[in-house]
Each structure stands twice: as structure tokens, then as C-alpha cells.
UniProtKB/TrEMBL annotation:
The lineage of its organism: Eukaryota, Viridiplantae, Streptophyta, Embryophyta, Tracheophyta. PROSITE patterns: FE2OG_OXY. The keyword Cytoplasm does not apply. Pfam families: 2OG-FeII_Oxy, DIOX_N. The keyword Metal-binding applies. This is Fe2OG dioxygenase domain-containing protein. One of its GO terms (molecular function) is metal ion binding. Belongs to the iron/ascorbate-dependent oxidoreductase family. Residues 191-294 form the Fe2OG dioxygenase domain. Keywords: Iron, Metal-binding, Oxidoreductase, Vitamin C. InterPro entries: DIOX_N, IPNS-like_FE2OG_OXY, IPNS-like_sf, Oxoglu/Fe-dep_dioxygenase_dom, Plant_2OG-oxidoreductases.
Length: 340
């Protein structure tokens, strides 16, 4: 399995990409609009959620609810995670991708629940298009996993995971209240003490033909909530009102999005928005999403307070988070095999 980083550096750099990486809207089932319009995702001041007056907190809770309903995305500022920690986390993930191909291949994975999973050029299932991305994913909760290299990766990842968990926990309290539920509902109902926390680092090397390639096609996240940081290079877009919107944020902010499980829990009120990653011809982009999900055996379904059989019937059948992930894995396997 050849990494994109290695491919891009072949013979001092490619002049064009292999045809297997050519991506067009016709390659996917999800309709794609190429039109961009001037709009920006909401910004949430985290400090007012945790330390503001009751009036300020109530206002922020309402803003979170509106962002979840209208966009499924928002930017979080003043969150308290040290900028220095965020910066060193990005730098260390960058160092991982500089390891030898043999060292990275030690972590090659095949299953969505592999505790550490290095991958590259993942087949786009039904599309047969390869993505212009290398990645490393590892679960840090309920049991901590992390590659041993580069030096310091484990310690930095552990500290970063702890600090971001504090932010995610408070955000999920705000989301609970915005739905009219008790503050700790999401945390308790989803059994987050045993919930999954997954760190992913994505490398999108410079691409000689960025107009033909894709870093990641339109997709939604499978968990409850995702917090993302990046190295300052743009590339993330969210689908909003059938248009693609650039997600621009300060590198010291978190880009937060709602996942599939939160959409299920909210009975469809909050949207797990489609988003995609574009590539460029000059700069390597690094993004680090950290995903929070329920405990694997937790059945995810809307609470009774959000369901009315006459006016607001259940929009989803309840299933465990494990069943949901296995269903995703089965779809990937079936589509991949059908194109061999």
C-alpha cells in the first residue's frame, strides 16, 4: 500500500495524478453543487457556556441549538485548551507522516473498530476513486491506544484527548439543554464513561491537479460530536442549503460538527451535515478530528420527550452503536468487493 505522500514525491514530484484519483460529481450518489455562496458557520463562545451569567449561558445554549439545527456545524472559541498543546499536537501528527513507509505500515488496519488504523488511498467504495489522503486513527477511550512513534506522540495525544474531552462534555451538556432535556442527559443516556473517543490525523499532500482529486468526498460522521483542528490550510467545506461553504476558522478554534448518533438522538431535529475535504496544489494540509461516540452496546434512540406518535413520530429505529458501526463496515466491504 503506497502512501499519497510517497506517491506525490515520486521522482521529485508528479506532473499529473494517476487516473484512479480522478474525482467528479458523477462518481458519487450524493448530488454535488459546485456553487459557493457567502455565508459562514456560527461561532460559539465556550467561556460564556461554562462561566457566563445565567442569561449569557441561556443565550449560548440557544445559539448552540440553532447552529445544530440550521448547520450541524459551529466554531468554538475561548475553549480553554492551550494553543501550545493544539500546535504541538498538529506538529507531532505531522511527524508521524514523516516516518518510513515500513514504520507506518505496522499500523495498517482493515476494520472500523481496529484500535489503531493507518490507511491511505482508501477505495471510495462504489466510486472506485482513490482519495488524496493519508491517515492514522486510534481510539483513546475507553482504553487508550496510540502509535509509539514519533517520540512523545503518546504523551501529547493523551493530554490532548483529556483536554478536548472536557470541552466535548460541556458542549454535550449545552446540546442536551438546547433540546429541552436535563443537562447531563446525553452523557448519561449514551454512557459516555465507557464511550468511544477516536483521534484521527489526516494528511492531504499538495496535489498537482487539485481540480481533479478529492481529499474526502461528501460524508457525515458516525458519532455524536466531532471536534476538529487544522494547520491553517483551508480545505474543509460543509453542505448548507444545497451549497458548499468554506469552513474558515482560527487555528486556535475548534470546528465542531454533529454526528449521526446525535441526529438519531434528537429525532432528526439536529443535522449530521455532509462535509468534504478539498486539496490544493501548493500546501500540505493536516486536520485532526477527534470523534466522540456512545458506548458500543448503548442503544441510540430518541428520548420520549422528543417523540410524539401523532405530531413527531420516531424518525429512526433504535440500534446499538456497535450495530451501527458494523452496518457501515458491511456496506464498505460489500461495495469494495463488488468492484474487484
Amino acid at each position: 500500500m503506497r502512501s499519497i505522500k510517497q506517491l506525490a514525491q515520486t521522482n521529485g514530484g508528479l506532473a499529473s495524478i494517476p487516473t484512479a484519483y480522478n474525482f467528479t460529481p458523477n462518481n458519487i450518489h450524493q448530488p454535488v453543487s459546485d456553487g459557493l455562496f457567502e455565508d459562514s458557520i456560527p461561532t460559539i463562545d465556550f467561556s460564556l457556556l461554562t462561566s457566563g451569567t445565567p442569561e449569557q449561558r441561556s443565550k449560548i445554549v440557544n445559539e448552540i441549538g440553532k447552529a445544530c439545527q440550521d448547520w450541524g456545524f459551529f466554531v468554538v472559541i475561548n475553549h480553554g485548551v492551550p494553543e501550545s498543546l493544539m500546535k504541538v499536537m498538529i506538529e507531532t501528527c505531522g511527524e508521524f507522516f514523516k516516518l518510513t513507509e515500513e514504520e507506518k505500515q505496522e499500523h495498517a488496519g482493515k476494520h472500523i473498530l481496529d484500535p489503531i488504523f493507518y490507511g491511505t488511498s482508501i477505495n471510495g467504495a462504489a466510486t472506485q476513486v482513490l482519495f488524496w489522503r493519508d491517515f492514522i486513527k486510534f481510539f483513546v477511550h475507553p482504553k487508550f491506544h496510540c502509535p509509539a512513534k514519533p517520540i512523545g506522540f503518546r504523551e501529547i495525544s493523551m493530554e490532548y484527548s483529556k483536554r478536548t474531552w472536557e470541552v466535548a462534555r460541556e458542549l454535550m451538556k449545552g446540546i442536551s439543554m438546547s433540546l429541552g432535556l436535563e443537562e447531563g442527559y446525553v452523557e448519561k443516556a449514551m454512557n459516555l464513561d465507557s464511550g468511544l473517543q477516536l483521534v484521527a490525523a489526516n494528511l492531504y499532500p499538495p496535489c498537482p491537479q487539485p481540480e481533479l482529486a478529492i481529499g474526502l468526498p461528501p460524508h457525515s460522521d458516525h458519532g455524536l460530536l466531532t471536534l476538529l483542528i487544522h494547520n491553517g490550510i483551508c480545505g474543509l467545506q460543509v453542505q448548507h442549503k444545497e451549497k458548499w461553504v468554506n469552513v474558515d476558522s482560527n487555528p486556535n478554534a475548534f470546528v465542531v460538527n454533529i454526528g449521526d448518533q446525535m441526529e438519531i438522538l434528537s429525532n432528526g431535529k439536529y443535522k449530521s451535515a455532509f462535509h468534504r475535504a478539498l486539496v490544493n496544489g501548493t500546501d500540505a494540509r493536516i486536520s485532526i478530528p477527534i470523534l466522540y461516540g456512545p458506548a458500543l452496546e448503548t442503544v441510540v434512540s430518541p428520548p420520549p420527550e422528543l417523540v410524539d406518535n401523532e405530531t413527531n413520530p420516531p424518525a429512526f429505529a433504535g440500534m446499538t452503536y456497535r450495530e451501527y458501526l458494523e452496518m457501515l463496515q458491511a456496506k464498505i466491504n460489500a461495495k469494495t468487493l463488488s468492484h474487484k
